[in-house]
Specification:
single chain; 166 residues; alpha/beta; 5-stranded parallel sheet; 19% strand; binds 4'-phosphopantetheine
């Protein structure tokens, strides 16, 4: 039986930290479904189509990884796909409370779900999509922190928002 795991997130946008987790997870599982949440709690900078497209481009070389979007509860998405395993990356201690809450809630909603936590590689410990957007919005360079296609999309997005306050 194929071992499949879902790697969910907002990915607004995907960073090299996320890429690292997805690639490493794909060495352990037969297939990874990167599941992009349509309506994360935070108002996203990129549309769902843009986020999915950026991830597809950045991970197109890895045939074990597929990208999909989902709306509503993660447990429902998992149920529809028949998947019981969730992958989440952990950076610092500050991630713990939120991840603990999410894992507990998901298991309350669907007891068979198991979340596997992977430590983010050292070089990406300090990266978050939020900080990437902040730096890019002020014209700073995020080269090396996000895939090159995301770099271009950030540039394009902030140029188009130039007159609006982000
Ligand atoms: O990248 P993020 O923003 O930390 O990802 C969080 C995400 C999208 C995985 C989480 O908010 C989620 O699963 N949202 C779907 C709605 C849901 O199932 N909520 C209950 C569990 S907290």
């Amino acid at each position: 039986m194929k071992k499949i795991a879902v790697y969910p997130g907002s990915f607004d946008p995907i960073t090299n930290g996320h890429i690292d987790i997805a690639e490493r997870a794909s060495r352990v599982f037969d297939q990874i479904i990167v599941a992009v949440a349509k309506n994360p709690r935070k108002k996203p900078l990129f549309t769902i189509e843009e986020r999915v497209q950026m991830i597809k481009e950045a991970l197109s070389h890895n045939k074990k990884i597929i990208v999909e979007s989902f709306d509503g509860l993660l447990v429902n998405f998992l149920e529809e796909r028949g998947v019981d395993v969730v992958i989440r990356g952990l950076r610092a201690v500050s991630d713990f409370d939120y991840e603990f809450q999410m894992d507990s809630l998901n298991r309350k909603l669907s007891p068979k779900i198991e979340t596997f936590f992977m430590m983010t590689s050292e070089s990406y410990f300090y990266i978050s999509s939020q900080i990437i957007k902040e730096i890019a919005s002020f014209g700073g360079s995020v080269k090396g922190l996000v895939p090159d296609n995301v770099l271009k999309m950030l540039d394009k997005k902030f140029k188009s928002l130039k007159d609006k306050k982000y």
